[in-house]
Target: methylmalonate-semialdehyde dehydrogenase (CoA acylating)
Amino acid sequence: MTIVGHFINGEARSDSERTQDVYNPSTGEVSKQVALASKETVEEAIAAAQAAFPAWRNTPVGKRAAVMFRFKALLEQNADKICQLIGDEHGKICHDAAGELQRGIENVEYACGVGELLKGEHSKNAGPQIDSWSEFQPLGVVTGITPFNFPAMVPLWMYPMAIACGNTFVLKPSERDPSSTLFIASLLKEAGLPDGVMNVVNGDKVAVDTLLEDKRVQAVSFVGSTHIAEYIYTTATANGKRCQALGGAKNHAIVMPDADLDNAVNQLLGAAFGSSGERCMALSVAVAVGDATADALITKMSEGMKALKAGEASDKSNDFGPVITRAHQQKVVGYIDSAEKDGATIAVDGREVSVSGYEDGFFVGATLIDNVTTDMVSYKEEIFGPVLQVIRVDTMEEAMALINEHEYGNGTCIFTRDGEAARYFSDNIQVGMVGINVPLPVPVSYQSFGGWKRSLFGDLYAYGPDAVKFYTRRKTITQRWPSSGVREGVNFSFPS
Amino acid sequence: MTIVGHFINGEARSDSERTQDVYNPSTGEVSKQVALASKETVEEAIAAAQAAFPAWRNTPVGKRAAVMFRFKALLEQNADKICQLIGDEHGKICHDAAGELQRGIENVEYACGVGELLKGEHSKNAGPQIDSWSEFQPLGVVTGITPFNFPAMVPLWMYPMAIACGNTFVLKPSERDPSSTLFIASLLKEAGLPDGVMNVVNGDKVAVDTLLEDKRVQAVSFVGSTHIAEYIYTTATANGKRCQALGGAKNHAIVMPDADLDNAVNQLLGAAFGSSGERCMALSVAVAVGDATADALITKMSEGMKALKAGEASDKSNDFGPVITRAHQQKVVGYIDSAEKDGATIAVDGREVSVSGYEDGFFVGATLIDNVTTDMVSYKEEIFGPVLQVIRVDTMEEAMALINEHEYGNGTCIFTRDGEAARYFSDNIQVGMVGINVPLPVPVSYQSFGGWKRSLFGDLYAYGPDAVKFYTRRKTITQRWPSSGVREGVNFSFPS
Amino acid sequence: MTIVGHFINGEARSDSERTQDVYNPSTGEVSKQVALASKETVEEAIAAAQAAFPAWRNTPVGKRAAVMFRFKALLEQNADKICQLIGDEHGKICHDAAGELQRGIENVEYACGVGELLKGEHSKNAGPQIDSWSEFQPLGVVTGITPFNFPAMVPLWMYPMAIACGNTFVLKPSERDPSSTLFIASLLKEAGLPDGVMNVVNGDKVAVDTLLEDKRVQAVSFVGSTHIAEYIYTTATANGKRCQALGGAKNHAIVMPDADLDNAVNQLLGAAFGSSGERCMALSVAVAVGDATADALITKMSEGMKALKAGEASDKSNDFGPVITRAHQQKVVGYIDSAEKDGATIAVDGREVSVSGYEDGFFVGATLIDNVTTDMVSYKEEIFGPVLQVIRVDTMEEAMALINEHEYGNGTCIFTRDGEAARYFSDNIQVGMVGINVPLPVPVSYQSFGGWKRSLFGDLYAYGPDAVKFYTRRKTITQRWPSSGVREGVNFSFPS
Amino acid sequence: MTIVGHFINGEARSDSERTQDVYNPSTGEVSKQVALASKETVEEAIAAAQAAFPAWRNTPVGKRAAVMFRFKALLEQNADKICQLIGDEHGKICHDAAGELQRGIENVEYACGVGELLKGEHSKNAGPQIDSWSEFQPLGVVTGITPFNFPAMVPLWMYPMAIACGNTFVLKPSERDPSSTLFIASLLKEAGLPDGVMNVVNGDKVAVDTLLEDKRVQAVSFVGSTHIAEYIYTTATANGKRCQALGGAKNHAIVMPDADLDNAVNQLLGAAFGSSGERCMALSVAVAVGDATADALITKMSEGMKALKAGEASDKSNDFGPVITRAHQQKVVGYIDSAEKDGATIAVDGREVSVSGYEDGFFVGATLIDNVTTDMVSYKEEIFGPVLQVIRVDTMEEAMALINEHEYGNGTCIFTRDGEAARYFSDNIQVGMVGINVPLPVPVSYQSFGGWKRSLFGDLYAYGPDAVKFYTRRKTITQRWPSSGVREGVNFSFPS
Model:
């Protein structure tokens, strides 16, 4: 059986000792093994990155950018293969994988502009004949630890910019769907990146802790659940590193009485059930203002959901695929059960879905739950499945209050056509990424991605301008030249 | 005896229960008591800040800036009083206190430009008919914990910008010289700042820990010793907060053979002994390249040091004052003793200094130590006294290597007139603030202040542009308006 | 009779040969004479500016900013005097003059942040061991030519930033109300500006042409009518100078059926009649969408206009004052006559206004004209008086089309609460400054001011970030240091 | 014979009426004809651009950038063909053409980052509940008029950014070597650019004047000689357009006594004779400080020049090719004659060069002239040939004075290793692009290109950040939403 290994110092590598099963979630079968790196293997990757740093940091900016331009081209040329690898191990439908990859490529494109982005601040005559300027120098070895749900995109949020800024990188991707991540990283070598600048280690807590504790690692970027994000942030910072750790979410959409409801429903279908809801930006709660709004929303959503089709990744006609594991499938179903038990109404029930030919796949059908309340476990926790819950409130203030009281603050949206309501909402909602009639307000690559409250630990966000700051360290140089010796001829007799 | 209390919700306040002595270090006498806030008092300050936040964040940017313009004017009008308060409790000479205050005022001036600095990033047509923009919203309640050595300046690095950005603030200044800090903060009320936006609590670890643990506090700025900085950073981040913690320093100057030595000596005198060396940017090590350079440096420094005069704060003819406490005086002397014992040469000895009329003051004379080596304790640790140590090396590479190997990386300087040497040095030295013939390369207020390695924990620096990022949280709004209803007349019958 | 002269090289100056009457427009009487500079006098001012340039450009940025901080304080201290001077010669009511001055002061405040604004772009490792950076250096002698309607504010758009950037300045203000401008400029000397950096020459075409043709003048900023703006732009550029020339306006407000009409009417009253409509941002045309909207607008405006009171400048209870001259009064009345003759309906007629005690003042009462069409002369030309014309259209598209077809494109506004209409309007309207429910969308001091089409000639706008670009010239320095001589000891024997 | 035509609305086009010879300057033979567009043809191109504008400006930024990414790839794939076309018509050696193309591609790469570059400035709470932001909207139809010496690069300075910003373009390239320019532009169609967005018209003054006078053309970018640049600037601005017009140059290098002379000579060989000196950044004057420096420079240069080889474009072993025309060849020789007549010393004489097999080519050999003085015609005017003139001065001040007195201020360089001399030079020299030991200080693509004095007319430079400003127009939107109707339920009964 294939063993998915590591990529260290420009070469494929595999530890033989510990491995873990990789499933095809559409069939429910084990398809590969992934190597789990030992502490020594991780240290080897760090050492490779450390060794590659001095030459890479001195490589002119334009040459670093040139690698990114070639990397972008290679990603596009290999898109089909990448999407297939994602589909095989994650289960998301190929069009969805293509969307993920496209978003990832956009981060590479942004890194192509590193010449502009790295510009320092130059102050002439900061004092008498004194100039002062800040350079943004690379940190050295930096690391990323990434989740299963976007095996292509989330790593691409991190290392292209880190590397373009002159750092070297060790990536620890999810062990559940490691193949696309590993393959993508290997394309960097083809793009001309010197060996050792980019390294991938697959693994578990052993690998993570090694990265968090090693003195040579300067910075840690993490995306995953809040529980782990908090651990990463606390541990990395206790080891003196800078850290940005992105955690979980519970994203609400407010549906106002004046919303264009057909539009809202169309948007919600994709935002709630796309990728089986396994997105940190998935819209999992709709807050309907007024019972009339709620009734209409339930009716139209139920109608729209009839057309949704769960199925296998390579079939483009499918709308979404299985969830990642058997255990997760059961967990999602458990949340639906609990909501029902807690008194919510299961308007559309996806618990009994069966996909012909893939009866053992980890599928959950699209589910709509009405009359959810904030005290239910299914509301408080992140389900990460194809489940949309509807809460009914009387006023927009009430809707905003419950969003602001939730522990997460990743994404949110309002459906309205009223300028005042939109502005009040976006100003006062305690959430990092806000949509006005946009249900998945993922920032473009030249803005930055990050939530508020317990959805992000740290002060700089993922990708975009913040990533440039995160992956560089300011150095401020203040310069005054002494008396005009050479210029005025004092040293005229210098040998020339 | 005067008790220096707190400033909470616009009013002077004092806990009666716990106090601590405040000394006049020039006389060695206790001059005041400072209140040590209880947990409850600190929580009251936090509550006041929390309550003041909603209105303050909604105050237009221009009105927030207007407070800063008035604050600047008040600081200038009250400069003499502030400098006297600093001199009485810290001991620095009035001209030095005036310099400190001026640097602090420059941070207020930078905060006056908050309209420019807070500009968000607006992306038109990020998608089809979709606009997206990032706002930099204030965090809420933020805190600063500041050291004794710059009681006016370091707090002014923090709260003017924090407040200008729309946050509310709780400051915990040094309990050793609290009066100037407290007085300055009270001027903000006179400048028109609403009550509760700025609060000061004096105290000790009780106050610090309360601030670090309280859920309402969003961010922590700290300046002090590395040991405490590390504690602050670890604790604040473990509590989910963003944190910037600036620690200790050991700042080296390389003196190259081609340096303008008279100029270098003049610069070093001030940089090593000013403020008794109690500056995190003090130059405490001179690295002479070549014995000829070293010999000439020792000769000229010894000569120059003859004119230096330690003394009481209010006498402008003095060059520097006492150190902060009796214990610190003994610690500094102890470092000189240990250097001597370890084999270094005491070229100029300040241990026996006595200031007429101030025999009980905590004075240490300017001290020059030659033949220091990197294994000596006096080299490894931060002395924070008027002591300049000289290390002799053969090459610039050797000089740079020892700087790069030191645990601190705050400031450094090279004396040369060679463009190539200067560029190589500034590029490769692992230090955050670099001077080319500038011994105290403190960045101007529109750059940012921060060291590398164990001199700073976090990713954003103090004051300048980084402070704007530190005291705000990005919110990205993505907006698409639905069909053209009103515009095309669908809703033409709306009541107007 | 007082002769208003010039301010050259730090001293008040007066040509004796040619003068012109200055009126008090409230009384209709000549109150002063203004000197009209000869070519020689203007050249003297240019020479003073040229001589002051080298030292001023080398003055550290912080010291240049310090002058602006003091200037701001002096403007505030002298506000009453300034407003009185404006009132006496321009006629605007004191509260309006105070508003003008405040806007002007905000431009001084923005110039206080010049340290931030002048930052150059620094590119490390642009090539192998090659750094490159751009500095924004001052131009030298620059000039401003300003209109009567904002004698304080418009000059303050120009010279504070020009001077803060290191340039020296010659201002040619309006000869109709020169006193406040001259007085304000003289405060710069009190603020510590070196003589010669700022100079004012009063005058007519002789002065203007001298400034446009003199080789030493590097740049020209102009605000006035389009006819003159075009002349200035063509002449200045033909003389090889950079130039920004702001011209006339015809600012339309679209009133949508869903607008909050009471709010709209309140806003329109001030925007149309404030300062007698003598503002380039005055709203002079309301475009009502639908007859119902138009009828309601006419009714409510007519009602609201009953309370408006024209009168003398120093009486705060007045809403607006006289127009600037007898000739202009007659011209405004002529436009109303022509509209009437062309078939428009005079809904409120201000032609016969008489102000008790000021019967000879140049007053025109607030006038509302309904049923205006785009072929009328009163629509095509800028009236610059207290006259609001109403055009009735059936659709928003129609409203936008007529705005886009007008030769001017300075300001505009839409009244609506619909997000989609607002976005469509602001995206597609061919106007530089756009209000959404804001009738006078004058940009804040940290944005820039400029119209489109024939309202502005040039590519950089007035004040704000554009002004920094306009008043500086990019210099890009590319630096590579040759072999490591000094660093590696080749020149070790340099005398030290 | 091939007729090189136009590219209008996505199609190759040719006027039949007027044509002009295109030469192969290596052979001296006519190789093609170029069509000279009539006024009607140019207007057709403008009309096509105008028609394409509305859809293109509304195309999301990312899609516009995607065209640039594909265009870059196509330029790389077609590099050999492009370089051959350049060689055939311009005569520059293929490695030099490749360098030109690479520089051009870097401008396309910069345009790929347009998402970042177009970000507007967003000000939240500029007033009470008032937000304000500036968008940078495209202008409409813009034009570029480009010279023969960089037929690939200079057009690529202009239209990629103009188009990426949302404008449509009409290019009028040099009629002397039109083929590469035309071919490159046609690749944009292959890259997916909609028809009409990019158009090329070949022609002469008829075409130029049509572009300058047509009301639909919003902006003009020009690169060429100063005489024409001035005409373009004056005419375009007199027609109310924004314009940037780059003219001629006379670039000096100062050689200081402490310079690394071997390095300086190596640099000067390429900088003076590369591309036969037909570069606006060519170094045509060396100013030697001190006779010892001058003597050594002449000796080493003469030695180095022995190895230089003029020849035909496709032979990589050649160093430079012919000049552009027979007339220009004679003009260059005439300048050498005149210098000789005026008393200069012809140290190396290239007048009699003959290239075997290309005896009728327009070749001039590398020429070194010593003892040049500032009163000689050969010094005052731009030669634009492979001629380096040496001026001897006694001091650096003298060297700088003569540079500052020259009418041009494009590029310059100093050779020194002294930090103070370098800083003094770069600060005070009146030249836009300054090299420290870099003889051709052409800014990287993310800085901007422009000279001072009569080397550039206008205020915004070519390519880089300035180009973004030049090709966009600021629109500032100020937004306040009225009362909270929808939000607070007033309109609750809206049909949903």
